[in-house]
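Cont'd.
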Amino acid sequence: MTAVEPSTDWTRKTAAEMAAALNAGEVTSVELTQAHLDRIAAVDGPVHAFLHLDPEGALETARKVDEDRAAGVELPVLAGVPVAVKDVLVTEGLPTTAGSRILEGWVPPYDSTVSAKLKASRMPILGKTNMDEFAMGSSTEHSGYGPTHNPWDLERIPGGSGGGSAAALAAFEAPLAIGSDTGGSIRQPASVTGTVGVKPTYGGVSRYGAIALASSLDQLGPCGRTVLDTAMLHEVMGGHDPKDATSLDEPVPACVEAAMQGATKDLTGVRVGVIKELSGEGYQPGVEQRFEESLERLKAMGAEIVEVSCPSFEYALAAYYLILPSEASSNLAKFDSVRFGMRVEKDTVEKTMLATRAEGFGDEVKRRIILGTYALSAGYYDAYYGSAQKVRTLIQRDFAAAFEKADVLVSPTTPTTPFKLGERIDDPLAMYLNDVATIPANLAGIPGMSLPSGVAPEDGLPAGFQILAPAHEDARLYRVGAALEASLTEEWGGALTAQAPTLPINTAEVAK
Amino acid sequence: MTATRVSYDEAMQDFDPVFGIEVHVELNTKTKMFCGCANEFGAEPNTQVCPVCLGLPGSMPVTNEKAVESAIRLGLALGCSIRESSRFARKNYFYPDLAKDYQISQYDEPTCYEGSLEVVLDDGTVVEVGIERAHMEEDAGKNTHVGGSGGIQGASHSLVDYNRGGVPLVEIVTKPITGMGARTAEVARAYVATIRDIVRGLGISDGRMDQGSVRADVNLSLRPKAPAGEDQDAVPFGKRSETKNVNSLRAIEKAIHFEAGRQAALLSAGQPVVQETRHWHEDTEETTPGRSKEEAEDYRYFPEPDLLPVEPSREWVEELRATIPEHPAKMRARLKDEWGFSDLEMRDVVAADAVPLLVATVGAGASPQSARKWWMGELARTANEQGVALDSLAVTPVDVAELQGLVDSGRLNDKLARQALAGVLAGEGSPTAVVEARGLEIVSDDSALEKAVDDALAAQPDVLAKIQDGKVQAAGAIVGAVMKATRGQADAGRVREIILRRAGVEG
């Protein structure tokens, strides 16, 4: 060892910086990947962002990328940059559980389209991240494998359902991560961990191989620490897939270009609509304060701020909690012990199915299966599922009217900064209210982003800023998001995550 | 349950039957309804499966456009309207052979609806059957219960084969059919036969009831006969039974006979008919109760969120309409006239499923009678011996027409033609190729024949004397000898002429 060059901590870099450094030969993918694996070993014990790690697979991918790069082979933009994958995504050869005990040990024989795209993009997959069971939850406390802890405060929730992916980013365990968003499961964790997350337009990213929660609401999306990184991953994930009938047959939005445009901090002529209904009662003062400051920044960059009203949002949560459980009750029927996953053997197939589902599913999953089964039952369908679908139409109309007045709509992503683990676990309604601002986008199929607006003065914890755009206009999120981020980081001197407290280092693991 | 069964005829004396039929047609698309797996009957269990038809977590269905096309064509052949936008729905129930534990089907928006079909009975009576809907769905896998009696009760374990899971089906549902009285069983049979003929004519299914590619469920209820002079339609329907998986034409008649007799006996004894699903037993020709409708499951239908609506353009539907063949019964009547067949001849051809073969053979140039003679004679015998269907013999209608052409042109006699056909069936090539390879052609060279005749006459001078004596029929012995000498390759008539001429007798 020749000393004393201060070694670069590659885990603190952005994905864009890592890609550039790889290209420039300043670092190898093996070094990058190993750095992240080391970081995971050092800090993931108390964070518990990962359910499964694949060091061999990740390093193998990295090695091949390095070889090809050395040989002058042309490589995809993010080739060699490691990524973490939410355990909702089916990955061939890697255990996939969707956070449920009922799938413990299941190793899928096929790849989801997004997994296949990550592999085609030559990105080392570090492992699978923790989540609420079948993506049902806002805190990861409903994971069958124990909760993830927020790197900002290990006693607090990292959001959910994609708390693992968001925590991995905030803990510098991965520069990029895949999430899925059915009612806010990308954006709410991003908000409470000070990271960035995007739910694309419904159909913008293939759902093939994403274990379904509510098929008409689910959408996979990119997670990162910066808007540009997130845009880069979005472009890797997106695009038409003949295996997903609901996939949009149109080109991937030019997210990176929009992010770079936004970074010039010129929002002249952009109309920003503030959703009146997503403020006030229930919103933490510090969250609202950061939101207002962000609006001022947008205005300072040339944006026009207008107020819009979406009166039907009042019914969004109720409609969501009818549609989601209804679809979920059907989607989760296949977990019956016959072909894969857990089997609790009894003397008849019917009893075996019952016993397996009784043991394999957690309480929240059972709660929603019961709700959905009830809502779809003969005689109740019209009153519940039918009415909820009508509310969905009303919400779509609210958005359509609002987008007449504004190019993007904005709100705080979540009403509060992260609450403490255990605080709402026995109060499902309080837990559900966490998603009041994120759910409408899923009901309408429009794209949304959450990015940090700062830490709330009262608790020093991250607050999130949500941007929504009309369907197919995902690029607008990146333009406005990148502008706000540029303005904020100028003041902060870097990404918000750099302000997170230092995590305890497991020296025993590091020493290995 | 003490009421005994009465005969069908007795039941029909006292009651007015109302029935309806659900026919499931397995489409013969290359791939399954929602994935790319092969749609073929008879493969090794679980070899035609993928994440989609196994219902693995994360997998998603994609609609097979060819299946949609087949369904629309079938709907058009049944006189249905085609919905501009129709949806798939999920029918939710747990069963091991149902990979996703829901079946993708159509519920409130079937693609084809409100049709009607003419059914022609054996005596020429035409009955119009109302079609309520024809909708698309996927088949389930197949359970095999091991141990016990083969049923799920008492089985030690069960095996599931998902090859059939996801095979495309069209389910055709009739409206309630009334006013058929004692002809109910006959109408039911003729209806299913007509559906089978239509799907074959469309080429969308092989229509093999024995392989389950056409399956019928028969609903039947009885109501009291209205008093004389009163309107039968004013009498409300009785409770119905639904007999599942009645899988032959004969079984359809038998199942209706059984159910009518069973229900009539119950009603006559003042006992209620239970609304229930019943199972048909081919061996005992009886139905036994399945689950009753009171405990029937609630399928919790809702629109399938993984699929887009089916929205066929009007132009496409009209293009498909132009491909619909004529009604099989009408086509048969027309062909019978064109071909000049007797009722009996036509009925035999229909019963042997040989109509398409005759059409093709006549189309290839053979006369209708010669085509019939080959297919219903030599070839039917061969098929019977081999235990295969006529159309799976190794001979094409073009071969048959070519063979007949060789006979008509005098190059082959009947015996040689049969030998040539045997060669074709043995895979030796076309009839002409077989004739050449085997040297089967008739000897038409008179000088060669004359020599053979002279040799035969010289060998049998007593016969020659008889002929010259006026006993012309004695020439048969010489004909036989000549045929033997030429290995059958002579025209017997021509040989006879030569014999008589050589003997100095004019025939």
